[in-house]
Amino acid sequence: MKIILLVVGKTTEKHFAEGLKDYTSRLSHYADFRIEVVPDLRNTKNLTQEQQKEEEGKLILRQIQPGDDLILLDERGREMRSVEFAAWLQTRINRAPRRIVFLVGGPYGFSPSVRAQAKESLSLSQMTFSHQMIRLLFAEQLYRAFTILHNQPYHHE
To answer: What CATH number has the domain spanning 2-40+66-149?
Structure first.
């Protein structure tokens, strides 16, 4: 089973990229975790926000494979404490999907076609964070979830 963090656009901020590299390395002890990038749209000046979402949606859906569990990371999604997220993750893993794909969308959110493909939406916070920052926050929470599941002393409660 693979866990994919699918993101729109590269992580360009050096400190976030370094943090992501660190957590990707840490996660390799627990799961086959990868970050996959959907390229930013080009020449969007003449596109409305809705058109941009639709075009990004087409690129995103090309990355989704049959049988994937697509989970949107969305500020309006379901919120959980870290321990609850760990239990949720274990349930997903036990279902044995080939891939669990967590998606960070573009600047205007998700197209209706992407939302229709998603199994669920999760929120890391009701606050809005930059798309680059949320990648690092999610990677840390995923690592935290695995340490909770393996009874390791990273998470304190």
So the answer is: 3.40.1280.10
